[in-house]
Each structure stands twice: as structure tokens, then as C-alpha cells.
């Protein structure tokens, strides 16, 4: 069976962007892959986090993984910082990655541009090698992510090829992963600025729908989403980015395709469309929220995470040892 790995940062509550772009794909994929789903808390600390809030968000994200339908009998669900091989392998990756490669990463350029240079952590620059480590430790064949992670996946593939060539003596020490981006919904846009990606850490809370937003808040945020003045429902991301984004969200939360939705709302205005979209989103998120709330402080959640960490460590440590041996660290084991 082939292997998948993916992770979400507990840098806030996941948005419907994280759900559509990544989490929703996990549910079907766990049926046909050996699956590792991680809460990447070490990635989250590349920007400042409050310790108590970070810990709470980490547990909440784990509860959300289960609430959307991930099955711990099929998938390994664990917290990144509880498997120390990630940080150790990331160091090896950093030492085999050039500064130039990291400085070219658009996510680094975007996130570092938002802050004063003295406050930008070195970890923000070396975030991609940690992500490379996450992926290679499980010898992952496929990585389901949103569109914004494409460049980091390219970096991973380049690293694997370089590492295998340099240290493999003809063997494929590490597996080259493929990226899996959904055909539609790989980049959900902000509700307030549809030219910008929806992000869980956006300061403007009206720009995203969090997976734990109350139904009234969800309906309100959709109602106030920025569209245009034409009132015509068409899918045209270039000229009508706001309504096109809402169409993508609608199609992702229902069984309707975008053309079916365009047809269905041909004679309606944005008001009716937004009202129905609000109901569609609420009807998916409400049961997830109920299950999340049952799990968040449960022993069940802790024991799933304990077991996940044990299973993940066994696989990750094996790959790490292979890497250490290949590059000559320590004594050969
Ligand atoms: N807007 C989006 N549309 C589709 N997919 C998205 N993803 C993120 N935003 C969108 C995908 O969600 C997964 C988890 O992302 P992450 O938490 O690792 O970090 P991120 O990509 O930086 O996501 P955010 O929401 O923008 O977080 P912050 O605000 O903390 O930086 C990834 O697969 C990502 O592609």
C-alpha cells in the first residue's frame, strides 16, 4: 500500500480553506493509503504563539481531525513535536539545502514581508526543510495539500533526488513524493479580499470562516462576503473573483458542480445564493462541531494521540537512522 502524509498547523482554528484544500481529501484517501495525519505544532512556532493557546489549538485540531471522519484504526494521527525525529531530520535537510533555495520560497517572502526583519524568526526561513523532513520520514508517496504548498513539495522532490544521488550508492534511500492538489478548491480566497488567500491567522476575522464558527456567525460572514455589483452569478475568477470563490465553496460543501450551481441560480440575485450557501456550510460544519466538542477534553482523544505518536515514532526513527547512517553521523547502527 502506498503512503500519504499531510499536516495542518495549529496556528489558529482551521478555516474552510484548510478543510476544502486539504482536510476533506484526507477522508477518502485514508481508505486506500497507509496514512499519517499530523498536527504540525513545530511549524506553528515559526511565528509567535501564546503557549496555552497553542496547546489548546493543538488539541482542538486533533479533535477536528477525528470529527471530520478520520479513523484512527486506519490512519495514524499524531502531534509533530511528540515525534522528535522530525526536528532531527529537519537539521539534516537544512544542511543539505541552500540558502538561495529557501529565500526563493514565496510563503517565506509573504510572511516575512508582514513583519519587521528583526522579529522574523530564522525558523520562518527554515520551515520548508522541516516540512521536507515531515514528508520523507514516512517515505510518503503522496502529499495532499492546497495550492500554496506546491513550491514546498517541489523543494522536497529536489531534496530527495539530491540526497539519493549523493548518499544512496545507487539505492533510493528516500521516496520521491507526488503532490495531490484538489482540482477545485486548492486555493480558497478571503471573503473580504478575493484576490488574497483565505488564512486562519488573518487579523480580519470576517475574511475567513473558521470550522468552529457558530452557525449565526457563518451565515453573517457569508452575507457580508465581498462580491460585485452585477448581481449575475457566473464563474469567472479573473473578472468576478468574489462570486467565483463563493461558487467554489458552495460546490465543495455540496454534491453540486459549479456549472450546476450557475444554472440553478441563473435567475436569483446574490442574496438568495448567499443564504443557501450559508445553510450548506452550516449543515456540514454543525455535526463536525458537535463531535469536536465531545472529543476535545476526552481521554479517547489523548489515547488516540498517544498511540499515534508511538506508531509514528517507529516509522520515523527507522528512516532517520537510515539518513544518519548514510551521511556518516555518529557510529553506524
Ligand atoms: N485558502 C486555502 N485554500 C485551500 N487550501 C488551503 N490551505 C491553506 N490555506 C488554504 C491548505 O491547508 C493545509 C494546511 O495549511 P497550514 O496550516 O499548514 O498552513 P498554511 O498553508 O499557511 O494555511 P493558513 O490557513 O494560511 O495558515 P496560517 O495563517 O497560519 O499561515 C495545507 O495543505 C494548505 O495548502
Structure, explained:
The chain has two domains: 3-185 and 299-327, 3-Layer(aba) Sandwich (Rossmann fold); 215-293, Orthogonal Bundle (Tyrosyl-Transfer RNA Synthetase), CATH 1.10.240. α9 links the parallel β4 (142-144) and β5. α3 (51-67) packs across α13 (270-295), α10 (215-223) packs antiparallel against α13 (270-295) and α11 (241-253) packs across α13. With 333 residues, it is mainly alpha-helical. It has 14 helices and five strands. A three-stranded parallel β-sheet has the order 1-2-3. Helices cover 53% and strands 7% of the residues. The site of adenosine-5'-tetraphosphate (AQP) has 21 residues, from α1. Residues 8-9, 11, 15, 17-18, 20-22, 145-146, 148-149, 186-188, 197-201 line the site of adenosine-5'-tetraphosphate.
Amino acid at each position: 500500500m502506498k503512503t500519504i502524509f499531510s499536516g495542518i498547523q495549529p496556528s489558529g482554528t482551521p478555516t474552510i480553506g484548510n478543510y476544502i484544500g486539504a482536510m476533506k481529501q484526507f477522508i477518502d484517501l485514508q481508505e486506500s493509503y497507509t496514512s499519517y495525519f499530523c498536527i504540525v505544532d513545530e511549524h506553528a512556532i515559526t511565528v509567535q504563539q501564546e503557549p496555552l493557546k497553542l496547546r489548546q489549538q493543538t488539541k482542538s485540531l486533533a479533535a477536528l481531525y477525528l470529527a471530520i471522519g478520520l479513523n484512527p484504526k486506519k490512519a495514524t494521527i499524531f502531534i509533530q513535536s511528540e515525534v522528535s525525529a522530525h526536528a532531527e531530520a529537519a537539521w539534516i535537510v537544512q544542511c543539505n539545502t541552500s540558502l538561495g533555495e529557501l529565500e526563493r520560497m514565496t510563503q517565506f517572502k509573504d510572511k516575512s514581508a508582514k513583519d519587521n526583519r528583526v522579529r522574523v524568526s530564522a525558523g520562518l526561513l527554515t520551515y520548508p526543510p522541516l516540512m521536507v523532513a515531515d514528508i520523507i520520514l514516512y517515505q510518503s508517496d503522496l502529499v495532499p495539500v492546497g495550492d500554496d504548498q506546491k513550491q514546498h513539495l517541489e523543494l522536497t522532490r529536489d531534496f530527495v533526488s539530491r540526497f539519493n544521488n549523493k548518499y544512496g550508492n545507487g539505492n533510493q534511500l528516500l521516496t520521491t513524493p507526488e503532490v495531490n492538489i484538489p482540482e477545485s478548491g486548492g486555493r480558497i480566497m478571503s471573503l473580504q479580499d478575493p484576490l488574497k488567500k483565505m488564512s486562519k491567522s488573518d487579523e480580519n476575522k470576517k475574511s475567513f470562516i473558521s470550522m468552529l464558527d457558530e452557525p449565526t456567525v457563518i451565515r453573517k460572514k457569508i452575507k457580508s462576503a465581498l462580491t460585485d455589483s452585477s448581481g449575475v452569478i457566473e464563474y469567472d475568477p479573473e473578472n468576478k473573483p468574489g462570486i467565483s470563490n463563493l461558487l467554489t465553496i458552495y460546490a465543495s460543501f455540496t454534491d453540486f458542480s459549479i456549472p450546476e450551481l450557475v444554472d440553478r441560480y441563473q435567475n436569483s440575485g446574490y442574496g438568495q445564493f448567499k443564504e443557501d450557501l450559508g445553510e450548506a456550510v452550516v449543515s456540514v460544519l454543525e455535526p463536525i462541531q458537535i463531535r469536536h466538542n465531545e472529543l476535545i477534553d476526552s481521554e479517547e482523544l489523548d489515547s488516540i494521540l498517544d498511540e499515534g505518536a508511538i506508531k509514528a515514532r517507529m516509522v520515523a526513527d527507522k528512516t532517520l537512522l537510515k539518513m544518519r547512517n548514510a551521511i556518516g553521523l555518529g557510529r553506524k547502527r
